[in-house]
Every structure is written in C-alpha cells, then in structure tokens.
Amino acid sequence: MSIYYNSESCTFFLDGKNLTYAMKVSESGYLAHLYFGAPIAHDDLGSGRITGRDAIPTSMPGQDSPKYNYTHYLPELSFFGTGDFREPAIQIQNPLGDRLCDLLYRSHEILPKKPAITGMPSLDGGETLVIHLADLACGFGADLYYTVYDDASVITRRASFVNLSKEPKRLTRAYSFSLGLAGNDYDILSLYGGWSAERNLERTPLHHGVFSIDSKRGSSSSTLNPFMALLPEGTTEEHGNAYGVNLVYSSSFVLKAEGLPSGDTLLTGGVQDFDFCWKLDPGESFEAPEVVIAYSDKGIGGMSRAFHDAYRNHLIPKKAVRASRPIVINNWEATSFSFDLEKLKAIADGISGTGVDTFVLDDGWFSNHREDEYSGMGDWFPNDQKLGGSLKNIIDFVHARGMKFGIWFEPESCNEDSETYRTHPDYAIGHPDRPRCYSRHEFLMDLTRKEVREYIADAINGILRDYEIDYVKWDFNRSVTDMYSIGRDSERQAEFAHRYALGLYDLCDRIIGANPDVFFEGCASGGARFDPAMLFYFPQIWTSDNTDADARTRIQYGTSLAYPLSSMSCHVSSPHDGNPTATKTRADIAHLGATGYELDSSEFTDEDRATAKEHIIEYKKMEELVLLGDLYRLDDPFGSNFFSFLLVSKDKSRAHLTLYRKSYREPAETKRVRFCGLDPQKLYEIEGRETPLHGSTLMNRGLMLSLPAHDCATVTCHLTEIYQ
Ligand code: GLA
C-alpha cells in the first residue's frame, strides 16, 4: 500500500520509490508536515512540534495556549492572517475586505486513480490522497492532492481552492504547495540563463529570510526555469540528499525557499502572484498547477534520474517515450528566410541516404511576404510563389526520397504587417488606448479568448488537413506584455497571465489533440519555454538556438538537471563564429538528445554524406539509452575543462559514455574516467578494446581514455555486458 492513514495518531504515510512522506492532523486540526526523505517505518512520529526561536508566540484563533501555535508546526499549506508569519501559499480577499484565512482539516479520501486537472497538464498516476481543508468562518476550502509512484522517486502535489460561501472572493495568491524540510543547512540550486545560454547552474547558500526565483513574462522563460533544488551542505553529484521541485506550468511562476526562525526550511510556489488577482464566484474552484517533488539520497544525479523517470513514465506522450525520434534536417541555419524550391530540394537531396529521416521546413514558407521578421506572421497559408507553385512540391519531393515532412508554425504570434492583424487587430493582446510593445517585431494573439484560439486552430488544422505533414515545430518567440484582454471585464484583468497558460493548453489540445499522427516538437526562441507542462504535449523541445557544441555542453548539462535527454532536441550544425569544432565533436554532443541536423547539406560532398551516415549509425546504437537510460553526469562543464555524460540501461547490460574536453593543454591527452551505475559483478566488453572489464573495475579503478589532440575534443565509449 502506498498511502496509509493511522486513525489513532491521525498520521498519513505515503511510501513511494525510495521515499516516505508523512504528515499529521494535529490536535487543533492543523495539517502539519512531519517528514520527507528516505523510506522510514510507520512509527509514532509524535506531535510534529518543532522547536526553535520565534518572536513573541501567537496562538491560533480562539486558543489562548502556547500549545496551539501554527509556527510550532511545519505547514502542508501555509496561510496568512491568523498567527502564521511564514511565507503563505494562499491569500484570499473576503467580501468584507479582510484577508483572514484559517484552513483546518475536515476530511480525506483516497482515490484509486489520480484525477487529471481540468484544463491543465499533469502527470498520470494511481492511488491519490486528497485532504480537504476548510475555513468555515469565511466559507473557503482547499483540497490538497498527493500521489506517490513505485517507478519514480517523486511525489506529485497540487491544490484546488474552492469558494464555499455565497459571495465572491478574490485570490491574490494561490500557490500549489508548501513543503517543510528539517534544518536549514541547505544550498539552493537553480537554473538561470537567457537566449542562446539557457539553464546555467547556480548554487547559493540558503539564508534566513526568503530566496525566490520567478518569471513575470507570461512564459516559464529562459531567464529562470521553474525548478529549484535544496541540497544539504556537502551534497555532491552522486552523494548526499537532494530535494528538487519542478512546476508543471508554462506561464509566470514563482518558487521560494525560506530559512525559518525555527531553524527549518519552507519551500513554496506556483502561479506568480505579482500582478495576479483571481475572482472566485460562489461554488467556483481555482486549480493550482501541479508540482513534482523529487527526493534522492544519491545526490543531484539521483534527483535528476527521479525527475527523468517520472516524466518518461507519467508525463511525456506515451507513444513517443520508447519510439525512435525523427532524425531531422532543418533548413533554418542554412537559409534563414532566403530559400526557394530548388534550394530546399538541394538540402533534402544533400542529406538523403544518410539516415536522416525527416525534412523540416522552418520559418518563411507562409504568407505572401515573409522574407524577414517584420511581416507575414499569423498568415498560415503557403507562399506558393516562393515554393515553386505549391507547398505540395517540396512535400512530394521529400516523401519521394523516403523522408517525412515537417513544418514550422508560430501559432501564438502575428506581425502588425499581416492579413491576420489587418483583419482582426483586436485579436492581438493589448490595451485599445495604448501602443503595444513589439518583440521580434511581433505581437501575441490573445489566447485568453476562445474565438482567437478557434481562429488559430482552424488555420493550422486546415494546413495539416490539406497537406501531408508528419511533423510540426511549434515556436514561440517573445514574452507576454500588455496584459489586457478586451474579452474580460475590469475585475478579471489580473487573471491574464494564468489565463494565457490555460489558453495555450487549450490551443495545444485543439491542434495536437486533433492531429494524433503528427509529431509535435516545442520551441521558444530555442529553449525559452522548457518546462514539464510543455513536455505533456511535446515529447521534445528545441533546447537552444545556440548549436555550438561547446556551449551545448553547458546548456544540455543544465537542462538535464530536471529534464530527460530524450526531451532535448539537439542538432549538428556548421561550426559557429569561426570555431572550427570537429564534426565528430558536434555529432557526439548532439547525440546526447533527440538528434538531427541544422546546416546546409546542399553543399555536402560524398565524404560529408559518408561521415553523417557513419555518425547516425553510431547514434542508432545508443538511441535506446538516450530514450530510456539512466544518466550519470561524470564531469561538470561549469566547473571544469571537461564534460561527460554516461548513460546506463536500466538492466545495466549496456552503457555509453561521451567525454568532452574543452581546451587542449598538455599533458591532458588522456583522462581516467571512473564509471557509475554499472553492475559491479557484470563483465563488460569495451568497444575498441580487447580486454573486457568488470563493473567493479570500471567504477573503482576506472578507464584511461585518450582524446584527440585539439580543443573541443570528444571520445565515446560503448560498454556491453558479456553473458558468462
Ligand atoms: C526561433 C527558433 C529557431 C527558428 C527561428 C525562425 O528563433 O528557435 O529555431 O525556428 O525562430 O524564425
């Protein structure tokens, strides 16, 4: 049984893979957190009272006794106004104008199957605990959902807030969770970045007070990812405890870690509450997005593997998890907007026969005048003249060469200079009396309005119906500004950022749901919307517009903190900025994800084609490990001259290592690599070497690997179990 309730001690135990989560209903009815970490027995864990220095104690409402004090417990859902001074997860405004809230336990139930969230993506799952809290004085309820898994060391949580009164209320904060952690000797690990340099690692000590990361951009953004990990002092890549949180959400968010006066730590977060106010009419609910909380006693790497297992087993579209991904040639870096039918054919021809199986036509194929970023966006009809008479020409050409055909859309955007904007200027987000902000010369469509979503879905579904399209790259190239919708009255305008997310999910349902045979890849100026909610729709996401192999070692390393390699779209491109990185290096790094090509293959020589073919054969050998293997990060490119990823199959019968060295300095031609995650007893054949070695030798003594004598060099190593 994964969910257990002891009715005598009013304690809940949730036992998942390698973890236990425990909480209890205190004497006063407060839902108090007891424990989260490595599996423990169902012992009597006591009252759950925490000690430590606080300001002058404040009792809970109506209880003049130090026994009844909220700050003496770690919360499962913190609230404000009634004696708790820690960071609240919820704030309401009642009709009288007060903001008082006092949520106590009412009942609980265990559902046999995890219910989906209305209108929002979430992980699937089995048995789910729902705890009903309520503030009967003001008529407000909070339902907390908890699910644990036997195949991933995570717990998923979410909250649903309901107005039980007869008058409207306003939510000015509606986070997804509070999570107490014992002690405060933690470092916070987060992922910051920007365009072309997504998801860099930052590790910083937790202090007393609140540390927060967020987005106000209407997207999860490349500035800060909706991910945070708490690492007790001393936790390393493969040792020590690690606790990670990741929001299944694509719009403005916030995640906070608070060093409490009690000497403990509180994590909380969800929908960004700056610029947020949600009107909740009587009987209505507000669904907060899901948070995935990972635990590992195997360090940061173990935490990442927990997220990867959870996303592969319970989030990413099932049919894409085990299947070979398309190996694409994309024309963007080769041509930008400047192409004609002959050029496209030459690119397809140049790479045909190498193993590349999908040709993707990027930006510039639509409208009558999409020759640059200034015009045509939003006009989803083919530029027949540019395409030599019909879009069908290139589709048929590609299909005739045995390849699939993919196409680019940016469904959420329009240019001012477009038929769409001229016909429906009010469909763009903005205030009627103000000029709008431009970004990449675009406006965004007001996805909070149903008629706008219908308009976009009709246009795109029309193209997907009329042409034989196998693959779609769904791009999104700006942040949301001018958050005002003519579709809502004044008291609902501060709902905009969250409604944009709901509109986006609905649009995904309308387009992706309506085209089950088309493979959809996500993109947002590279990786500016790389979050679990997007993975619910898109099995893979274009990780960055930066395809330079050296930059990619850092981008892919950072992204792998939470997201599996199979979710990262990674292409072999031409060397950038005069950096003569070897083709082999570019291929080796691009193979650590859903690989493909993004270069001018019309210029390929026979030798280039043979090389690409050889590289794709190599990729196919490791593809299953990329899709389903356990990742061990052996070298960190942020802190060293090296980067290495080791992939190990679940049954430990196969492994693949890619080692990269940035700068060649004598005498760094060789490096000893100590493997991880192998079976010590198994004997492994090492490709290219005569002597097999046991897992124990490979993991303890290691293996000396030689790297080519130049900068940005790679070496790969394949291990296969020898059955004795
Ligand atoms: C974004 C994407 C690129 C490409 C261009 C086209 O920048 O990240 O891959 O599709 O848009 O405009």
N- to C-terminal separation? 38 Å
**Residue share in helix:** 10-25%
Assembly context of the chains: single chain
Mean pLDDT, to the nearest integer, reads: 96
- Alpha-beta content class: alpha+beta
Strand content: 25-35%
Task: Identify the overall geometry.
Answer: globular
What compounds are bound to the protein? alpha-D-galactopyranose
Given the structure, what is the number of helices?
Answer: 13
Q: Total strand count, please?
A: 39
Please give the largest β-sheet.
10 strands, antiparallel
> Roughly how many Å is the radius of gyration?
27 Å
User: Uncertain spans, ≥5 residues at pLDDT below 50?
Assistant: none
Structure notes:
The protein is α+β, with helices and mostly antiparallel strands and 724 residues long. The chain is 19% helix and 31% strand. The chain contains 13 helices and 39 strands. Strands 7, 8, 9, 10, 12, 13, 15, 16, 20 and 21 form a ten-stranded antiparallel sheet that branches. A hairpin with a 4-residue loop joins strand 1 (3-6) and strand 2. Helix 4 (341-351) packs parallel to helix 5 (391-400), helix 7 packs parallel to helix 8 and helix 10 (549-559) packs parallel to helix 11 (583-590). The longest helix is centred in the last third of the chain and has 23 residues, at 606-628. The model has no long low-confidence stretch (mean pLDDT 96). Residues 332, 362-363, 408, 475, 477, 523, 525-526, 542, 545 line the site of alpha-D-galactopyranose.
